Amino acid sequence: MNERTLCIIKPDAVGKNLAGKILAHIQEAGLRPVALRMLRLTQAQAEGFYAVHRERPFFADLVRFMTSGPVIAAVLEGEDAIQRYRKLMGATDPGKAEAGTLRKLYAASTQSNAVHGSDAPETARVEVAYFFSSIDQVG
Length: 139
Ligand code: ATP
Ligand code: MG
What we know:
Number of domains: 1
Bound molecules: adenosine-5'-triphosphate, magnesium ion
CATH superfamily: Nucleoside diphosphate kinase-like domain
CATH topology: Alpha-Beta Plaits
Strand order of the largest sheet: 2-3-1-4
Oligomer: single chain
Order of helices and strands: EHHEHHEHHEH
Number of strands: 4
CATH architecture: 2-Layer Sandwich
Helix content: 25-40%
Number of helices: 7
């Protein structure tokens, strides 16, 4: 099924000038960016985005990390884009990520793990709309 999913290149990766390499990797894997923007999240925006993790012990650190510098958000389109992009990202903990995945290649730790990807169709819908209106998305 043709799907759209939300990708975020997190502050650690943007800060290390890895955004170009990460986008190239995504495109070489056959996922097509249909919307793209750079922004710096406010605390409220980061808290809202990761609201499902509100009760987790790492929440405050996660919000601090996600607001520590600019991020690049993109909508990726393709056949089974949600699961394909999750597989391309690799495990949350880069130490457990498969060889060749974005997190294995570019992530420093479980928190500073370079990229975000929506995990299911409903979250993809909500997360894409969190960053982009329909008019921002090509096609
Ligand atoms: P994301 O939602 O960012 O794509 P994910 O789905 O692989 O990542 P989640 O369990 O949703 O992982 O956690 C969201 C983010 O919170 C992680 O990507 C990471 O940045 C941070 N995080 C998760 N678990 C921990 C932890 N144990 N310690 C520190 N940070 C964590
Ligand atoms: Mg997640």
